[in-house]
Amino acid sequence: MIVRRAKGWLEGSFAPSVTALLLLLAGAPAMAQSVSFSPATLSFSPAGPYSVPRDAAVGSQIASAMAAATASKITCALIETASVNGTEISAGSGIYQTSVSGIGVSFYVVNGASQTLITSTNGGYTSGTISAPGNGSLPGIQANMVVTGQVVSGYSLTSLPTVTVTFTPTGSCSWSTGIPTTLATSANNSAVVPITCTVTTPGVSVNLPAVSLTALSSVGSTAGGTPFPIGLSCASGANVYITLTDATTPTNTSSLLTLASNSTAQGIKLQILNSAGPVSFGPDSAVAGTTHQWFLGASSSVNGVTLTVQYYRDDTNPAGTAPATLSAGSVHAQATFTMSYQ
Fold it and tell me: How many angstroms separate the CA atoms of 16 and 25, rounded?
């Protein structure tokens, strides 16, 4: 358009600008369908450093993280798949290794109240058909940091598994490429410190008094009870357990301690008592639930345990393998103790 002015010509036009604007609007692409996770990283809570009882039961949860998924402009039905980028501690367990021995991570697809563990079986998780979400929510992901075995000291969680989640359209749809998202896991202040006790009396020697045979005249009678302590210095945050093991006969699960081969007395064994009575022996193991393991208390309040050892009139030889008549002589025996922090 050319506008005539009284004084000369002025060339100009608004129409081309309008046309350009219309072309720009016409050429703008529609916003594509998408899936977003919030937060974008699975950050474990509570944050570290993590103080974990050294012998906590396998599967005990240390921390967790959750990411919610939201769809944008998705008008097609979907199939969700998920796989973990890491190494399972055992095939199909759904628990994946970290850089700290004794600590792993498991991942779950969370759909309302339903949680499905992601394992390596069949290549990972695959959902049924998910109705078109539009701009709505989709199943999210939860990560749990868990105990996988005895926790080792001196390490940090510098390496953690990740999870890849993909939503792929199914049925009649104008697009076919899946929407993948890889969620990293993060543990702030990630040092791991096993909670344990320091034994302040690692070796205890007990001298029992000499007693007369008449004090042990009948089977089951006892004499010479002598108390002895095991000193402990414990960090708070764990429950402390202990197991006594017969050093001469490690498979012994009775309450009578086998005499060593250099003992000469006959018809006598030793018995160790705690505050509840005679202690039965168990294997040299710190695993939770070990045979004849007993509870000492919370580590914040435990500073030791006092035991008593006494003679016990038995009717077998020192090795406990044959009948024996009571006779005087020397008595030697050894027991070990194993602490467990759960």
Answer: 14
Q: How far apart are CA 139 and CA 114, in angstroms?
A: 9
* 3 state SS of 149: coil
HSE-up of residue 66 (Cα within 13 Å, Cβ side): 7
CA distance linking residue 243 with residue 144, whole number of Å: 31
CA pseudo-torsion sign 47, 50, 53, 54:
positive
Check residue 284 and report its DSSP letter: S
By three-state DSSP, how is residue 229 classified? strand
DSSP state of 171: S
C-alpha to C-alpha distance for 147 and 151, rounded to whole angstroms: 8
Provide the pairing of β-strand 162-170 with 77-85. antiparallel
Question: What pTM was estimated for this model as a whole?
Answer: 0.71
Structural domains in the chain, CATH included, are 34-195 (2.60.40), 197-341 (2.60.40.1090)
The Cα-based distances of 49 to 52, 105, 162 in angstroms read: 10, 16, 20
In whole angstroms, give the CA distance from residue 334 to residue 280. 14
pLDDT digits (tens, 9 = 90+) for 135-188: 999 999 999 999 999 888 778 888 999 999 999 999 889 889 999 999 999 988
Of 215, 247, 86, give the one whose Cα is nearest residue 163.
Answer: 86
Distance, in Å, from the CA atom of 163 to the CA atom of 69, rounded to the nearest integer, reads 14
Closest by Cα among 279, 272, 267, 253 to 334: 272
CA 261, 263, 265 angle in degrees (round to 5)?
A: 135
> Which run of H or E residues covers position 135?
none
Phi, psi at 269, each rounded to 5°: -130, -175
Q: In this structure, what token pair is assigned to residue 317?
A: 């030889």
Q: CB within 8 A of 192, min separation 6: which ones?
A: 48, 49, 50, 52, 100, 103, 151, 153, 155, 156, 157
| Average pLDDT for 67-90 | 96
